[in-house]
UniProtKB/TrEMBL annotation:
Superkingdom classification of source: Bacteria
Chain ranges of the PII-uridylyltransferase/Glutamine-synthetase adenylyltransferase domain: 356-503, 892-1019
Source organism of the structure: Actinopolyspora erythraea
Listed name of the protein: Bifunctional glutamine synthetase adenylyltransferase/adenylyl-removing enzyme
Record keywords, A-Z: ATP-binding, Magnesium, Multifunctional enzyme, Nucleotide-binding, Nucleotidyltransferase, Transferase
Pfam family, any one: GlnD_UR_UTase
GO biological process: regulation of glutamine family amino acid metabolic process
UniProt function note: Involved in the regulation of glutamine synthetase GlnA, a key enzyme in the process to assimilate ammonia. When cellular nitrogen levels are high, the C-terminal adenylyl transferase (AT) inactivates GlnA by covalent transfer of an adenylyl group from ATP to specific tyrosine residue of GlnA, thus reducing its activity. Conversely, when nitrogen levels are low, the N-terminal adenylyl removase (AR) activates GlnA by removing the adenylyl group by phosphorolysis, increasing its activity.
Length: 1023
């Protein structure tokens, strides 16, 4: 059809149309082949020319065809005819000739070998067929028929020198077949290209066949002498069936007995010489003691060495060991004896660090100018993948036989399937590894030389041919060379990123420290180990373990990986049993959260921190199942501790404002508060949030909840009601009153704990001529709505709004106008009410009204001239009654954090008395914060620095201890626990080192509060 078009146009086509750059030479060669005439390509040659044009290097392909034509003689006619008619032969032969000059040389020297590539349905052959062919080539087997296997003794005496040439030719013939199948899909998309793994498997089988043939040749030279029992153990890529086209073949030799060692050494030396001259270098440097060690050892000698002297990298090398030639039974005994030793390597001290250090040493040996082009050893190269995979195998393979594969790709797949790495990571690394290996294969195929150096960007022609050999073509304006460069950089970067993620994963070090028997979580020995770790109910722990790891799911597999480490981590916490139960509950609650286990597996710091939190606190797991997103924050200390409270409050109010219904608004506020409460609790327990930041953050989130709920309640009440004012009906678009929320107590001081109520007062002011009574009625409806929705039962720590500090207490109105408050305080306020106002500050609602309230009550809480002695005595009397009557029955006054001696009340009343007496004189005392007030008292000369420090330390410790009890128990209490386990947990929550004596906590608390009580009695009760 194409020729008819040319003929109609009158144009004579040029060979350049088929990609030939030397047009004149190409036309002469095409004419000589019988494929070109005066009018251009002959019709019967069109398919051949089209295939030539798709080869990586059409000029090389045609030139090699011309050489083959000359060497084929009279057989050329048959070959040319079959090339025109057989698509499979045409694609396989021309693909090889169009890329590999070395295999073209082989075909020219052995022109009959093109027949290896013929046939449309070529049945691929395996290692036995390869072995039979190579053995036959050296005269060590009668027939090259398939399935011939390896003879235990040679069938003929073979001269090792004479055997080299036929063995080389036969081996190159096998490489020709493999390369042809490997490359054919590049030039003919109708042919299915073999996978990278199939190609490396064939190359490995060919190498094994060559070793067997070389063994037979070497053994034949011992004819008439004692033939030793010698087994050849393949190591490295040959052992893993992932060999390159050109590579050393790493081996180890093992003899059966001492009397076999000497003749076996001669046999091994001859084998290495024959295989090296004919096929590839045989490298025995991985043997015990390396090149300085004996070439051949007995099995006992190998075992003795590996048990006593072997270094970490030698066990890593054994991971790929497999018997391939020589005495089969001896080789199997070698594998059975040494294979278990491989899986003890990870128990060696500093094992993970040794493997990492070795990879770094290898990388440092790469010349700087070649670092980005070194396929094998450079950053993002093949060794990055292999070291990462082998480290993961050696660490996790002790307890999971499924990942004990010699093949890198198979190991990657199983590591992903079993959950040791993310599927996306294992898949991405496998894809990139296969790409880099294929690039390596193509580089070596060109001249059959060992190379791992990627061409530089300046080598455009080389890059273009390499790209086409990989099936990469030009894309738009982007040339094939640029496409290849882009793919190479993409895969190299991905390999390096994943290598650093997996190879330096901290979890590996933790798993490596777990004894091998502890990795098998269902063995009887696990009970003893759990008891040794501190679990009081090992049988119960095993039930939890069984529930988490049962089944064949990927989730169960990941749990099986994590649990040995987590059990150890939990064993270091105050309550391992409770921590494991909490972990099970959290895991079951988050079973459908896809990132949960992945986060624990990939971020060791998260697993460590989570174990500590679960084994210390009951509050954290209760919150965690309903706010799992906080787990992500455990990976980043700055995210856990660095959030600005004002920003958190703003985000909460903004999110809640989207809800019209107050119930939903309160639910959203509660959810966001839960998230923040859990973040603060985790940061507090882990010691990354200072105590006073904890108090401020808890207060800030309470304020935000109040503000958001108040806004929602106002919207709802206005929408549902009409308020009558003097000018008629007030519509929903207008507010009858402004409302401000005044924080009291610890909320006013921004010093809340985890279980604190919110002490508040509500003040309102009429708007737009509305009567006071209408404003109060409106505000009361809003406040009751706020209290109702926040006071609903919840699994979270309660959100109780306490208004008992308002004028007249519980019997007084819930809301007053500003004038009503002032009228009450000016006429009826008692000393304790003025004292309560010391911590009053506006926290929510109308800011301007709140500030006017603050200014209006200043004369009451900071009375002109201070307090007279009568009021001072009244406050002291009230404090004495509190000490005597308010302490709960049975409570220990020495360890009650709120009302006990030297506790919160002692310190706060002492400061507040100073404020009532002297704040009018010293304005710096006008603060709602306890700590700030103590510092101000120093500046005013009312407290010595020593006394203030003693009081501050006692107050801070009491606040922290109170919070710690809440975190440990999951419910609030002002009393330090007496039970040793709970006290240990409180100690851990307070930051005491693991294993500290629980009694130390009590001793420290009693000492600090005793000193504070002495200051209180001197400052509070003396004039």
């Amino acid at each position: 059809m194409a020729q008819a078009n040319w003929q109609r146009s009158g144009a004579v086509p040029s060979p350049a149309r088929y990609g030939f750059s030397d047009v004149e030479r190409a036309e002469n060669q095409l004419r000589a082949a019988g494929w070109w005439g005066d009018s251009g390509p002959l019709p019967e040659a069109e398919a051949v020319l089209e295939t030539l044009s798709r080869t990586p290097d059409p000029d090389l392909a045609l030139h090699s065809v011309d050489r083959l034509r000359e060497s084929s003689g009279r057989e050329w006619g048959e070959l040319a005819e079959r090339l025109a008619s057989e698509a499979g032969l045409r694609a396989r032969l021309l693909a090889v000739l169009g890329y590999s000059s070395a295999l073209a040389d082989h075909l020219v020297a052995h022109p009959d070998d093109w027949r290896r590539l013929g046939g449309e349905d070529v049945r691929w052959r395996g290692v036995d067929e390869f072995s039979a062919e190579l053995l036959h080539s050296v005269g060590a087997m009668d027939s090259p028929s398939p399935g011939g296997g390896v003879p235990e003794r040679p069938l003929a005496t073979v001269d090792s020198t004479a055997a080299v040439a036929p063995l080389r030719a036969a081996y190159r013939g096998l490489l020709l077949e493999i390369a042809a199948f490997d490359l054919a899909g590049v030039v003919d998309p109708n042919l299915t290209a073999p996978s990278y793994e199939e190609v490396t498997g064939w190359l490995s089988d060919a190498a094994v066949a060559a070793l067997r043939a070389a063994w037979a040749v070497a053994a034949s030279e011992l004819s008439g002498q004692h033939t030793p029992r010698l087994s050849v153990i393949a190591m490295g890529k040959c052992g893993g069936r992932e060999l390159n086209y050109v590579s050393d073949v790493d081996v180890v030799f093992v003899a059966d007995s001492e009397e076999d060692v000497a003749p076996a050494t001669r046999l091994a030396s001859t084998l290495m010489r024959v295989a090296g001259a004919a096929c590839f270098d045989v490298d025995a440097a991985l043997r015990p003691e390396g090149k300085a060690g004996a070439l051949v050892r007995t099995l006992d000698g190998h075992l003795s060495y590996y048990r006593r002297w072997a270094r970490t990298w030698e066990f890593q090398a054994l991971l790929k060991a497999r018997p391939v030639a020589g005495d089969v039974e001896l080789g199997e005994r070698y594998s059975e004896a040494l294979w278990p030793l491989v899986w003890t390597a990870a128990e060696r001290e500093d094992f993970v660090a040794d493997v990492r250090s070795m990879r770094q040493r290898v990388e440092h040996h790469v010349p700087t100018e070649q670092a980005d082009r070194e396929l094998k050893l450079g950053r993002g190269g093949l060794r990055d993948v292999e070291f990462a995979v082998q480290l993961l195998q050696l660490v996790h393979g002790r307890g999971d036989e499924n990942i004990r594969s010699r093949c890198t790709m198979e190991a990657l797949r199983v590591l992903g399937e079993r959950g040791y790495v993310a599927r996306s990571d294992s898949g991405g690394m496998a894809d990139s590894y296969a790409f880099l290996r294929q690039v390596e294969h193509r580089l070596q195929l060109r001249r059959l030389r060992r190379t791992h150096l990627f061409p530089s960007p300046a080598e455009r022609t080389t890059l273009h041919r390499l790209a086409r050999s990989l099936g990469l073509r030009s894309q738009g304006s982007q040339e094939a060379a640029d496409v290849l460069l882009g793919e190479y950089r993409k895969h190299g970067n991905r390999v390096r990123r994943l290598h650093e993620k997996l190879f330096y994963r901290p979890l590996l070090e933790s798993v490596a420290k777990v004894p091998t028997e502890a990795l098998r979580l269902t063995t009887g020995a696990a009970v003893d180990r759990l008891a040794a770790l501190g679990y009081t109910s090992p049988e119960g722990a095993l039930r939890h373990i069984a529930a988490l790891t049962s089944g064949m799911t990927r989730r169960a597999s990941i749990q099986g990986t994590l649990l040995p480490v987590l059990l150890d981590l939990l064993g270091r916490t105050p309550d391992p049993d409770g921590g494991l139960l909490a972990y099970r509950n959290v895991s079951e609650a988050l079973a459908d959260t896809p990132w949960y286990l992945r986060l624990l597996r990939d971020e060791a710091v998260v697993a460590e921190r989570l174990a500590f939190l679960l084994g210390t606190s009951k509050l954290v797991p209760e919150l965690l199942v309903r706010a799992p997103e906080v787990l992500r924050l455990l990976a980043d200390t700055s995210e856990l501790s660095g959030r600005d409270p004002d920003e958190v409050a703003g985000s909460l109010c903004s999110a809640v404002s989207r809800h019209v219904d107050p119930e939903r608004a309160a639910s959203a506020a509660r959810s966001l508060r839960r998230h923040e409460l859990l973040r603060v609790a985790a940061g507090d327990l882990l010691g990354v949030l200072p105590p006073h930041d904890v108090f401020a953050a808890l207060s800030s989130v309470w304020v935000a909840v109040l503000q958001a709920t108040l806004d929602a309640a106002v919207r709802d009440v206005v929408a549902r009601s009409e308020w009558s004012g003097p000018n008629g009906v007030v519509s929903g678009a207008e507010l009858p009153a402004r409302i401000a929320v005044i924080g009291m107590g610890r909320l006013g001081g921004a010093e809340l704990g985890y279980g604190s109520d919110a002490d508040v007062m509500f003040v309102c002011e009429p708007e737009g001529g509305v009567r006071d009574s209408t404003a109060v009625r409106f505000a009361t409806a809003v406040v009751e709505q706020v209290r109702r929705v926040l006071g609903k039962p919840s699994q979270d720590p309660p959100l109780e709004v306490d208004t008992d500090l308002r004028p007249e207490g519980r019997s007084g109105p819930l809301v007053r106008t500003l004038d009503s408050y002032l009228n009450y305080y000016q006429r009826w306020a008692q000393a304790w009410e003025a004292q309560a106002l010391l911590r009053a500050r506006p926290v929510a609602g109308d800011a301007e009204l709140g500030e006017r309230f603050r200014a209006a009550v200043d004369p009451i809480r900071y009375p002109r001239g201070g307090l007279d002695l009568t009021k001072v005595r009244e406050i002291r009397r009230i404090k004495a009654r509190v000490d005597a009557e308010r302490l709960p029955r049975g409570a220990d006054p020495t360890t009650h954090t709120k009302l006990g001696r030297g506790g919160l009340a002692d310190v706060e009343w002492t400061l507040q008395l100073l404020q009532l007496r002297f704040a009018e004189e010293f304005p710096e005392l006008r603060t709602t914060s306890t700590v700030a007030g103590l510092h101000a008292a120093i500046r005013a000369g009312l407290l010595s620095e020593e006394d203030a420090t003693i009081l501050e330390n006692a107050w801070t410790l009491a606040m922290r201890a109170r919070n710690a009890v809440m975190l440990v128990r999951g419910k609030g209490s002002d009393q330090l626990p007496k039970h040793s386990r709970e006290l240990n947990a409180v100690a851990a929550a307070l930051g005491y080192p693991a294993g500290s004596d629980a009694g130390q906590v009590l001793d420290d608390y009693l000492r600090v509060t005793r000193r504070a009580r002495a200051v209180v009695e001197r400052v509070f009760y003396e004039d």
